[in-house]
């Protein structure tokens, strides 16, 4: 996650409108090299996406699209390819709501100065930076070397953030070593999310907090139908404007549709051993914020 883009919410809406209406033709001819960024600046009279849009040029013959089997090598490779443009595309696809979701997640974690917080699937470290502003020390863990590389570069100089390549299902940390564990939009990409939850319970201190921010199922049927239309129609159009790796974002839509509803995820937290489990919907249920606490007795 990252701060809102400089062109603002109104112009993000223009990008969406233009994507749906097909006003901008997709431009081809990118150099076919993996992890090559092409900075594109589009100065439009109608005030559209006037920011520099990093476009990831990827040879379509070697792009790996992860599928719902979520093979670790495919998932890591996919995120490696989208890492340079990941934050910007997230802002476009969420209509700028990623900033609000990050604020809600940070408040739920409630980081305090001196605490040690594990941010799993931290990506480029934008969510970690938000947590570190409190004075906490944040370990930003991610499975993708490409994400880690971009994150270290962008967060260079921030002594409160430490990047570590790690598998959520086999965390390289001691028991009871963090005051809080959080993961935003990453649990859905884990092969065995319940195994990851058990790992989160292991590494968090007794009385420590778990906060999960993840895409969810809107409870209202009309909204759920509209959201499905967005995932299948609008999102692919927007991705064509901002990223060359369309298959990666096909996986995004597939994985969101396959993800269980809120009460099932809450049940997973309870089964893993967390107590005081609760969740609340954000943006009408498009996203859900799940919380749990490790029992004090678990550390005795």
UniProtKB/TrEMBL annotation:
InterPro entries: SAM-dependent_MTases_sf (IPR029063), UbiE/COQ5_MeTrFase (IPR004033), UbiE/COQ5_MeTrFase_CS (IPR023576). S-adenosyl-L-methionine binds at residues 124, 142, 167-168, 184. It catalyses: a 2-demethylmenaquinol + S-adenosyl-L-methionine = a menaquinol + S-adenosyl-L-homocysteine + H(+). One of its GO terms (biological process) is methylation. Its EC number is 2.1.1.163. Transmembrane segments: none annotated. It holds the Pfam family Ubie_methyltran. Belongs to the class I-like SAM-binding methyltransferase superfamily. MenG/UbiE family. This is Demethylmenaquinone methyltransferase. It comes from Rathayibacter tanaceti. The gene is ubiE.
């Amino acid at each position: 996650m990252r701060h809102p883009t400089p062109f603002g919410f109104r112009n993000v809406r223009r990008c969406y409108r233009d994507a749906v209406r097909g006003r901008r033709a997709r431009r081809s001819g990118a150099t076919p090299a993996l992890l090559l960024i092409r900075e594109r600046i589009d100065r439009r009279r109608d005030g559209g996406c006037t920011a520099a849009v990093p476009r990831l040029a990827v040879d379509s013959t070697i792009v790996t699209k992860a599928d719902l089997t979520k093979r670790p090598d495919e998932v890591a490779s996919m995120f490696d390819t989208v890492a340079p443009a990941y934050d910007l595309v997230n802002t476009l696809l969420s209509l700028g709501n990623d900033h609000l979701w990050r604020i809600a997640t940070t408040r739920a974690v409630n980081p305090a100065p001196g605490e040690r917080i594990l941010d799993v699937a931290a990506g480029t470290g934008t969510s970690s930076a938000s947590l570190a502003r409190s004075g906490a020390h944040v370990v930003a863990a991610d499975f993708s070397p490409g994400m880690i590389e971009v994150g270290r570069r962008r967060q260079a100089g921030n002594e409160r953030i430490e990047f570590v390549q790690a598998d959520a299902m086999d965390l390289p940390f001691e028991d009871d070593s963090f005051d809080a564990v959080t993961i935003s939009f990453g649990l859905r990409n884990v092969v065995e999310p319940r195994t990851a939850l058990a790992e989160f319970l292991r590494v968090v201190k007794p009385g420590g907090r778990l906060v999960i921010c993840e895409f969810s199922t809107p409870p209202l049927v009309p909204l759920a139908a509209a959201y499905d239309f967005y995932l299948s129609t609008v999102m692919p159009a927007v991705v064509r404007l901002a990223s060359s790796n369309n298959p990666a974002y096909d996986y995004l839509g597939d994985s969101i549709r396959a993800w269980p509803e809120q009460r099932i995820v809450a049940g997973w937290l309870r089964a893993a051993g967390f107590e005081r489990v609760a969740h609340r919907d954000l943006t009408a249920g498009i996203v859900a914020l799940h919380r749990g606490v490790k029992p004090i007795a678990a550390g005795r």
